[in-house]
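Lab meeting minutes (informal)
Scribe: AK
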Amino acid sequence: MDDKTVRTSAQRDLELVNQAIQGDQSAYAQLLKTYRESIYFMMMKMVRNADDADDLTIEAFGKAFKRLESFNPEYAFSTWLFRIASNNAIDFIRRKKKASIYSIDEDYNDEDSKGVFEVKSGDLNPEQELMKEQRIQEMHRIISLLKPKYRQLIEMRYLKELSYDEIAAEMDLPLGTVKAQLFRARELMHEIMKHSANKF
């Protein structure tokens, strides 16, 4: 890659960053599309686990998007993003080493997610109906960024409104595994939603 290509890429990224700061959701999507694979492979080299690498990739973008306004345009966006991803992975590795062993059947509390995923129904005026539709569209957009197993769990729990037991039965998984993976899926969604201009 020559210097001209590097400059063009950096300029394109800067324009996308500025658009994203103004609330352009397509700019966020383009930045994620451009660097997701590269970040993922870097995460794989650091943690050597595909699931962890995928989770850390989403977390890295969530943290970067949350801090976009602090981005210094004197530096390349890619350099800034990779530093955030690298530091996040290092923190993850440290936490993993210190983490105590716990039972997968631990009861994960679902209360914190209420209100975040809830889309109220009932008698709504046209403006409220439009806002409801926008929230649903935004939820689908965020869900689409999750890995397939997390996306399926979130859709079953919050869109189909199945119980934990029903999800466990349908997916043929232990109840504790369903709870643990839903807990992780919600964490990832919260990271993504932190940068979103459209709050639930």
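Next up, CB showed the second protein from the same session:
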Amino acid sequence: MGKSAPKAPDPAKTAAAQGQWNSFTAQQQQAMNQTNQVSPWGTLTYDQTGSQTIIDPNGKAVQVPRYTATTALTPEQQKIYDQSQQADINLSQIANQQSAKVGDLLNDPFSFNNSDAEQWAYDLASPRILKQQQQNQASLETQLVNAGIRRGTPQWDAEMSRLTNANSDQLNQLALTGRSQAFSEALAQRNQPLNEIIGLMSGTQIQNPNATFAQTPQSQVAGVDYTGLVNQQYQSKLNAYNSQMGALGGLFGGVASIFGGL
């Protein structure tokens, strides 16, 4: 009797075995890429700290390792880090204390008196401006007299009116400029406490020391094509079986022709 045909691989068992090889390859690749590092700022180390249970497609519990990456600074860098953290704490405490005053500040509506601002500007600059205007008027009167223009004439009145308007415009501009400057100073004085609190609350954060470590080259491990190997072995056995069956068929055909000719 001839040999029976090779049995086809069980798809479920083949897939399960392939999954085990894939898991092994992934773990091997991860272990190769977890390179401990030592730099002037500290160390970066990887350690296996347990395992985790996952369920594969067949409902089987599989244990996979879990790792922890630990960054340790040098004593000098650790001291800098601790001091920076303490500075941030101090600033945040000050900001917290000062923020309690914000409510009182905002409960008092901002007010600005235009008249007071204009009077302040006038009192500050008018002595010098009025003196200059008096000098300009005296100079203009001299020019008009020298030109033969007398008081009370239309030409005299027109020139005096022009000078009076110019002087009024100058004083009005003084009031507007002074009011604008006074408003800006009053608003800055009100906003200063708020700006200080915002500045304290938005302090610069310390950078993560991990940024100083080198980029670890990533190793790529080719997975095992277990499914392909199983199918290749099955095809090889099947081809051998078919060849054997073909040879036996030819042998039986030859024997049958011999007996048929007797």
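CB comment: Residues 154-201 form the longest helix (48 residues).
No objections, moving on.
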